[in-house]
Design goal:
The protein has about 180 residues and is mainly alpha-helical. α3 (about 40-50) packs antiparallel against α4. The longest helix is centred in the middle third of the chain and has 24 residues, at about 60-80. It contains 7 helices and 7 strands. The model has no long low-confidence stretch (mean pLDDT about 90).
């Protein structure tokens, strides 16, 4: 993407995905979006997490809410402060499909809190998956059965990747993690 053009782009939806997009240009757009996310938005997203996790056992639920709320705070700050010069380009077809899944989730939001959650998750997960090329879920995320996402020798091991990668609303197919073979 021509540098002058990306400076005019203010939102992910405005990116022209019909031309090459380098990671640094995508980061510039994500920084603009991250600056528009405020503490109140993160608190609303945390409220949605509490509602969404109400079925979970208390120990797992509390860990889940704390981990994702902390991840949102941390990642938004990381995005705003990131001065890394990233090499490479973003796969525009993969990014288009990724954003489409997230747009559908946002459209189907039933509450303001859920919309805030999806808005933040969109910025954070785009940064994580396409700029940093890291696992979308934070390392240590617990899944049903007590299994966690792990980082071993630079490889993200997910206990549910194979079970979720074909789920249309899941972002697993876009994630760099691989199935943790120690989990059957």
């Amino acid at each position: 993407m021509i540098l002058g053009d990306i400076n005019m782009v203010k939102k992910l939806d405005e990116i022209d995905l019909n031309q090459p997009l380098n990671k640094n240009d995508l980061l510039k757009v994500l920084k603009k979006e991250a600056r528009d996310i405020h503490i109140q938005d993160i608190m609303k997203a945390s409220h949605f997490l509490r509602e969404d996790a109400s079925f979970m056992p208390p120990r797992d639920r509390d860990d889940f809410i704390a981990r994702f709320t902390r991840a949102f705070f941390t990642r938004i700050k990381d995005i705003k402060d990131d001065q890394t010069d990233y090499q490479g380009v973003v796969n525009p077809v993969k990014l288009r499909d990724f954003l489409k899944v997230q747009e559908e989730q946002s459209i189907n939001s039933r509450t303001v809190s859920e919309r805030c959650f999806h808005r933040i998750a969109r910025v954070v997960s785009t940064y994580t998956a396409f700029v940093r090329e890291e696992s979308i879920h934070p390392v240590g995320t617990r899944f049903p059965g007590g299994f966690t996402l792990r980082l071993v020798d630079g490889v993200y091991l997910c206990p549910v990747k194979d079970k979720q990668k074909d789920t249309p609303s899941a972002l697993c197919r876009f994630c760099v993690s691989v199935q943790d073979k120690s989990v059957n």
